[in-house]
Amino acid sequence: MLDSRIVRILQETVGKENVSTEQADRICYSYDATQQRFLPDVVVHPGSPREVSLIMKMANAEKIPVFPRGAGSGFTGGSLPTKGGIVLVMTRLDRILRIDEENLIAEVEPGLVTEQFQLAVEKVGLFYPPDPASLKFSTMGGNVAECAGGPRCVKYGVTKDYILGLEIVTPQGDIIRTGGETMKGVVGYDLTKLMVGSEGTLGIITKIIVKLIPLPEAKKTMLVQFDSIDGAAQAVSSIIRGKIIPTTLEFMDATTIDCVRKATSLDLPESTRAVLIIEVDGDQDLINRQAKRILEIIAPLGVISTQVAETQAESEALWQVRRSVSASLRKVNPDKFNEDICVPRSKVPDMIRAIEGISAKHAVPIVNFGHAGDGNIHVNVMVDLKTPGEHDRAHRAIEEIFAETLKLGGTMSGEHGIGITKAPYIPMELDPIAVTYMKTIKRALDPNNILNPGKVFLEDQ
Amino acid sequence: MSGHKKLKDFQEQIEQCVKCGSCRAHCPVFGQQKRESAVARGKIALAQALLEGEITLDKRLVEDMSKCLLCGSCVNKCPNLVPTDEIVMATRRTISKERGLSPLGKMISVALKNPGAVRVLGKTGHRLTGLLFRKVAGNSGLRLRFPVPYIAKDRSLPELASATFLEGQPEFIPGKEGQPTVAFFVGCMINHAYPQIGEATLRVLRFMGLNIILPKAQNCCGLPALSSGDGDTARVLADRNLAAFSEKQPDYILTSCASCTHALAKHYRGLSQDHDDFAAKVMDVHLFLEQAGLVEQLKQLPQGDDNIRVTYHDPCHLRGQGITREPRALLRAIPGIEFVEMEGADRCCGLGGTFSAYHYGMSQGIGSIKAAGIESSAAELVATACPGCMMQLQDSINHAGLKTGVIHLMELIANRLPA
Ligand SMILES: Cc1cc2nc3c(=O)[nH]c(=O)nc-3n(C[C@H](O)[C@H](O)[C@H](O)COP(=O)(O)OP(=O)(O)OC[C@H]3O[C@@H](n4cnc5c(N)ncnc54)[C@H](O)[C@@H]3O)c2cc1C
Ligand code: SF4
Ligand code: SF4
Fold this sequence. Notes:
The structure holds two protein chains of two kinds.
Chain A lengths: L3 H11 L4 E2 L2 H6 L13 E3 L4 H14 L3 E4 L16 E4 L6 E5 L4 E4 L5 H10 L2 E2 L12 H7 L6 H4 L6 E7 L5 E5 L11 H5 L8 E8 L1 E2 L3 E9 L2 H13 L6 E6 H8 L12 E9 L1 H15 L4 E7 L2 H12 L1 H4 L6 E8 L5 H15 L3 E6 L4 E8 L6 H18 L18 H4 L2 H14 L16
Parallel strand pairs in A: 2-4, 3-4
Antiparallel strand pairs in A: 1-2, 5-6, 6-10, 7-11, 8-9, 8-10, 12-14, 12-15, 13-14, 13-17, 16-18, 17-18
Helix pairs in contact in A: 1-3, 8-13, 13-14
Chain B lengths: L10 H5 L12 H6 L6 H12 L7 H8 L6 H5 L6 H16 L3 H11 L1 H13 L1 H4 E3 L6 E3 L27 E2 L7 E5 L2 H6 L1 H13 L3 E3 L9 H5 L3 H16 L5 E4 L2 H10 L5 H9 E3 H7 L2 H6 L8 E5 L3 H4 L5 H9 L3 E3 L14 H5 L1 H18 L3 E4 L2 H14 L4 E4 H8 L3
Parallel strand pairs in B: 4-5, 4-6, 6-7, 8-9, 8-10, 10-11
Antiparallel strand pairs in B: 1-2, 3-5
Helix pairs in contact in B: 3-6, 11-23, 14-15, 16-19, 21-22
The complex binds flavin-adenine dinucleotide (FAD) and iron/sulfur cluster (SF4) (2 copies).
């Protein structure tokens, strides 16, 4: 427990109603989508960058760990208060500060829900493409801190490709600006890029300047069912090889389909072993041509059926199938180890085949879906941790999956970050000198190790 | 022993919450409060903590559990269909078992178990209308002149009827030969405050040639009691209704109140075999009429040329049962009506039974989002299928200063039927 003096300082800083040490609130801010739990000592909802700065200064003086949090939808435990201390919930800072239609940029606060932002810019004909499946509830700050990606990233890139500048509160409580409003800028180190994906370990994001692009005129969504998983995986590589970059190329395997079958009115017969959701956007002529070409390319690969959405509502219905996937996997087994490996796009079929082998070898169900178009596959090792030995089996399977990923020239995480769940595996991918380089940066910026300690790197690594 | 499920019976469903946070996008209370304890995920975590003894049943927990509309908006969108509404109700029952009923819960229990007393109150209330209430501009309801516990002074209320709906009705209205026999479950709101909905429903049922039973001994469905955590009262009322409807065996039990349908069809289940049989006969009147071919019959009526623009609000208690298409199909078929969809038609109105008694400010906030949707639809009337929603919609419309009228779908239909 924190001593009452600290609680009083916090109350004076952000107002009594924005500080809570009640057991109910500590429980409600103890979890994220990893389903792991760590009780914080105090939950604080700051209302301005200045308040965040004061909190960080106090936390440094008192050596109290601070854990920034957005919506708590993270898959790797980045927001979990693993050492008690302060959970700093950023959701009160949720304004759109401006949408600049002359320069196609916008400035927002970190607690803003991504979809709210997208709807606002789309109203004026602009487009913010990064679309994590959690876009209806995750925050812009959380998206930047994890460098979130989504289906559309095949064509449009991930969060980092849209961040021009940031305002951050440093671990020691100073407020600085990184980057700016211009499309180019090379003055000094690129701290913006360093911050994006730093998982709240190097600074607290308090403002975000994003680049916008014109909203594409039209889009076409297609849901294609395949009679084999290999057919779908080959379709992905063939489309890319055909030099077509669709907006999205989402993949779901047979077990994934089983999990969502009940939740949709869509006809998904048992003979369907894999599904691709393919979307193209742009002007009407182009998308008709692209859609036709794609269907020609994949026709010989065991296509059972193709559903084409003609209206926005139909397209939403197809997408709802995809968005409900990750949380519905519990139907397979209660506990999941959720990895989001990324391999070179031509290697998707090899990777899928390798995972099938690993699943059979360790007798654990492994469910695969994800953004196949950029080689990013969500691999879910499904176990029941109440069964003895399951934990070890899962870990052995994951280690083999990572080894195979790296062998194919891939990476362990495309977008979910490292947090605590993947920290043990970092040495498999990163060279020890690179790890030391990174940890040196962290130590220099946060000498007291109070900002989101214990994340990304294991403490004794 | 009320026979309702206990919190620990929900253990497995509680564990199905994967803490994804999707409910943050859908829970209306979270939309107002933006604190995790207000959202389904938080309430489930608290219910779990209570089961595991990690938290005590203190004032704070009671408060957190009161912040739920039982609207089911989270349930429908939850990838694992975790029934947060039921988990909250079970937690409220645990609370009232251990701490006793809240003062509001006690009032509800007494009122529901003694419909006679409510009648006297209603009659007196009606006589004293001018003294107790002032009229809201136009003819859009009443407001209290004096503060009364649990009813905010600026909440618009319907006028209490001088006679209940049931008082003036026969117990049986014969229909055409060969037609099914339906029993009409009226519900408190229609019986005491909106008798015109009852009248309209009867007109439509008669138009369809149905044999109609109107059991006089029926009483409240019990939802207000369940909402306040009072399983015992809910059980007493359920048993009385069972007795009232078992005398003549109807083929269907119809209601024009979405909340009553929800209570009867869902919460009577599992109490006993007889309750299950009763629940199986319960059907929302709109669903029934759509299946009975009313849409075709409406289309054959002479088409008036007065085109009234009407939008539709989905009561949570119908939406939760998947009844969204049928009311719209009826609406579209009514002569002289231009149906327009409003933004957020499926969003909760913000009433939520005891919720709005405890949290009128938030209830208003949720209502104002609804009012914005109504306004941008530019409809002259908003139709719905639940008298509770009607009261709340009228309140939200009054606060927003709109002129839109509120009407029950049965009234709209009855008005267009040949005399
Ligand atoms: C159903 C579901 C689907 C998902 N789909 C995707 C997907 O398609 N693609 C994807 O990339 N991710 C996905 N995710 C993961 C998750 O939603 C993203 O990582 C998201 O960016 C997290 O945002 P959040 O607001 O919930 O952040 P949190 O989970 O609260 O925090 C995430 C990290 O960001 C840090 N952080 C938060 N706010 C700030 C701030 N203001 N300053 C500094 N650090 C901060 C935290 O400390 C933590 O390390 C999904 C999650 C779920 C539950
Ligand atoms: S949407 Fe369902 S599973 Fe996800 S956090 Fe909410 S209640 Fe839990
Ligand atoms: S039932 Fe309604 S108010 Fe209650 S938690 Fe679910 S969405 Fe929120």
